[in-house]
Amino acid sequence: MPAKNFHVRQAAVSALRAWAKGHDYAESLVERHAQRRMLSKSDRGLLQAILFGVLRNRRLIDHWISKLRQGKLDAETRDVLRVGLCQILILQIPDHAAVNETVEAGKAPVRSLINAVLRKAITTRKELMEELDDLPPAVRHSHPDWLYNRWRKSFGKAETLAIMEWNNRPAETFFRLNPLSPTDAEIPGEKLSHSPDYYELEGKIPTDLLASGAIYIQDPATRHCVKLMAPKPGETVLDACAAPGGKAFLIAAAQGSGENLTCTDSNEKRIPRLEQNLSRLKIQPAEISVHDWRTPAPERFHGAFDAILLDVPCSNTGVIRRRVDVRWRLQAADIENLATIQTSILENALPCLKPGGRIVYSTCSIEVSENIDLVKAFAEKHHLKVKAKTRIIPTQHGTDGAFAAVISV
Q1: DSSP class per residue in 218-282
Q2: 3-state DSSP call for residue 121?
Q3: pLDDT tier, 4 (very low <50, low <70, confident <90, very high otherwise)
Q4: ω before 244 within 30° of 0 (cis)?
Q5: Inter-axis angle of helices 6-20 and 41-56, to 10 degrees?
Q6: In angstroms, rounded to a whole number, what is the distance separating the alpha carbons of residues 216 and 205?
Q7: What digits encode the pLDDT tens for the residues 320-376?
Q8: What domains are defined for the chain?
Q9: Which residue pairs, CB below 8 angstroms and at least 24 apart, start in 381-384?
Q10: The CA-based dihedral angle spanning residues 180, 184, 185, 186, taken in that order and rounded to the nearest 10 degrees
């Protein structure tokens, strides 16, 4: 039998406790805790809405807790209150359900406290909402101060506010048709005018089309790097950081097959998913193997490729809307450390180009230090040319954020 609804709140609290201890990313925790409690699809959806809602608004919710409750709180009770206030003030779930079932998710000795705080939130809701515009922007939009200040220097205050607002909205689901596995089935979405072959999903994910390889779930922002690469049939191409396979799919689609495509990834555990995705999409690469591009390339790769895609590890600041906990995991020092890793990957990939070949450097970051500044410095060091570049800002383009540049020998 499906679990009772208060089990959804218990699952949300348990997931938050696990997340706080660094056990996993938010997306994985939803699935794990839904399976553990045998939640129905609708309850799983509620669990995700609560967990993502808390993480998107965590700083604001903690501000509300400080207004509603004086004194210390243990970590678990605070998470129960986060779950309750998210439902009442963010998701606008009916008060009786939000209060009664959240109270049940707390331990017996603190249930009266939880009940009192949540009911106070209901009676003071209007005041709490009216004060929002007076809060510091980073509190109102639940971003770390350092990230808000960094973006304000890069984009200005108005654009930074727009980016933070964007990051707190639930993300749409987009998919791309697979030209290597055409279908006559009805396409369950609206075609995007600015992104050929991409659709915004309407309704539930069509599992039959997904399983058959007719479509691939993918944000349109992913296409820009492959568009810049413009791989031609017969060219040898390396997708160096390939898992889970979305950009390898786009390369193979552009070439008409995967026969001249080599895919590598640094993490052996991600290879099975890469293989499964490409197989489902009717793509058989020339090679799929493990290699960490922070280290020198295998000898067989030297001088082997006309084009190399480096979709490098990055800060993910362009996809915070989808990866809701990035803002809390990321630290300022991480961005500079990532730039060091990104440069080493470029250095190790460069010898693998054929004469006249090209590297496409790609991130899902909106940080200039990971993007154009890094690419220009690398090109100048090696006397290369930056032939083209694309910078996608979510609020300006209506998709995830991304950067791509073509570096030619």
Answers
A1: --GGGHHHHHHH---TT--EEETT-TT-HHHHHHHHHHTSSTTEEEEES-GGGHHHHHHHHHHTT
A2: helix
A3: low
A4: yes
A5: 40
A6: 11
A7: 999 999 999 999 999 999 999 999 999 999 999 999 999 999 999 999 999 999 999
A8: 6-135 (1.10.940.10), 141-167 (no CATH), 170-218 (no CATH), 221-408 (3.40.50.150)
A9: 382/350, 384/408, 384/409
A10: 110
Kindly report the pTM of this predicted structure.
0.95
Catalytic residues: 364
Residues forming beta bridges with residue 281, ordered by sequence position:
none
Residues making up the chain, counted from first to last? 409
Q: pLDDT at position 1, please?
A: 38
At CA 302, angle to CA 297 and CA 305, rounded to 5? 110
Residue linked to tokens 């609206």: 190
Q: Which pair of structure tokens corresponds to residue 123?
A: 């009676």
CB-CB neighbours of 227 under 10 Å: 14
CB 299 within 8 A of CB 291: no
Q: Which amino acid is at 146?
A: W
List the structure tokens of 310. 């480096």
Residues 18/29, Cβ–Cβ less than 8 Å? yes
Question: Are the CB atoms for 238 and 306 separated by under 8 Å?
Answer: no
pLDDT digits (tens, 9 = 90+) for 105-160: 999 999 999 999 999 999 999 999 999 999 999 999 999 999 999 999 999 999 99
